[in-house]
Amino acid sequence: MDIHQLTPFLSVSPQITAADVGLAATLGFKAIICNRPDNESQEQPDSNAIREAAERHGLEWHYLPVVSGKISDADVAEFRALLNRLHGPVLAFCRTGTRCSTLWALAEAPRLDVDAILKATAAAGYDLSAQRDRIAALAEHGEGTPRMSAAPRRHDVLIVGGGAAGQAVTGSLLQRQPDLDIAIIEPSAEHYYQPGWTLVGGGVFDRKQTLRPMHDVMPEGVKWYQAAAAAFRPEQQQVVLEDGERLGYRTLIVAPGLTLDWDAIPGLRETLGRNGVTSNYRFDLAPYTWELINSTRKGRALFTQPPMPIKCAGAPQKAMYLACDHWRRSGALPDLQVEFCTAGAALFGVADYVPALMEYVDRYRINLAYQHTLIAVDGDNRLARFRVTDAQGNSEEVDKSFDMLHVCPPQRAPRFISDSPLADAAGWIDLNPETLQHRRYGDIFGLGDAGNTPNAKTAAAVRKQAPVVAENVLQALKGQPPRAVYDGYGSCPLTVERGKIVLAEFGYGGKLLPSFPIWLVEGTRPSRLSWLLKEKMLPWIYWNAMLKGREWLAKPEILTHRPADHEANAACDFAEKK
């Protein structure tokens, strides 16, 4: 637990889990306040589980959800009233602790000096100086209506998201202009190498190999706002943080990743990590996948894939092939029925790679169930319900029993993106697929999984997108149109067995884009060299090259002709705005 004491009565914390409640009890806390709404992000634990743990340990539980970036006067009054009637010490938590600290600061405004409040929050690790005007208004008039600062903090480049995309583009920018004023908005204290989770679930990696503290990844000289972005104000060139602070920018890069929508499948969240239900799409569950692979010796193993778009479209298959290879080697495969239940009508979206994959489907005796969409899970009874659609578009619901169920969840853009002016009709960031510039705002660029560009959502795509965005952002800062283009490159190393990979590399329209000559790596065939690349080289390249802006095999293509008129106009509009 990461506990920050504001007063002897109240401490705040980033998101806690049910397992943390016992520790809170041993530390003497008498009550827990949850200020985070349910289903705010993909990794968020179920608050009901935390409530049940609090009740088991004799702690009072209070659920007072506050929407990120929209702390109202009513929220403040309710928080103040709650603190007044509780017996402490009290632990309040939200995503990062910022909302809880802000609620306390505003609630104490009528009683404490403004400087004393800000000093206390700063000592706890929360800089709330942007709330000074609102705290002062509450202290003087008892009204906390926030006022926009006349001079919000402003940066040349503001980046939303400190994951693979945000860090990679930061590295590429700093390689080109080391003194550039860059700030990153990222609430998480950890950074994950997500491509490694397939190998964790396959028993090859330890999950600790895929995790580093965010402060170790964040480049020197970059301002890190450890808070969540809540809203965009593109006309004012501002981003609103979860505590209401507004940050200004000259150029904005949006790279928040996507949301894994576990709750879109009723019953799934409640049974994850037990009853034989797992997913390599979560850091904490990938080891359970390997545990299940080792313990499942007979029965039915189901592997699911939802409708597109999803992060790494080959990942559901990778988990299945590694599991089957282990069962084959251990002699268990003849006693297992393995099914791949995919919402799609094909095994893989690029036909050139299907023949090699089908060889393994046949070797492992996998039943391919096309147009099967997982719609519910009954973990206690080990039943999975699917909507099955035939060639004529007719559908029916079918229940399948299972002994092991590996789920790839439905995926969508984060709500603060889909509800923003930056989104297209489907909720994704509306980008030009070549320049990665926003279609309506010339001072905004995007990359990574939250964009609407029709490429595979993989770390390899980010590796190629980051230099393009970096080049075009620097052009925009000079009032010039974009000149670098992205060809849709994505890569999916399909782990068909332990020691061999089909290295799928392709761009827009399914065009094959191999990185290596065919005599070295024939991407459409299984390769031991590709496995070596995946297991040994790619993690090193990720941490030591990609995140640091070293663009090995990723140099951007630079336009030598005049860009499209709409791109030029967007750049000119931005230049006038400056």
UniProtKB/TrEMBL annotation:
Question: Which stretches make up the Beta-lactamase hydrolase-like protein phosphatase-like domain?
Answer: 2-109
Leader peptide range in chain numbering? none
Instruction: Give all residue intervals belonging to the FAD/NAD(P)-binding domain.
Output: 155-274
Tell me one Pfam family matched here: Pyr_redox_2
**Which PANTHER family does UniProt cross-reference here?**
SULFIDE:QUINONE OXIDOREDUCTASE, SULFIDE:QUINONE OXIDOREDUCTASE, MITOCHONDRIAL
Q: Specify the protein name.
A: TIGR01244 family phosphatase
Q: Which organism is it from?
A: Marinobacterium weihaiense
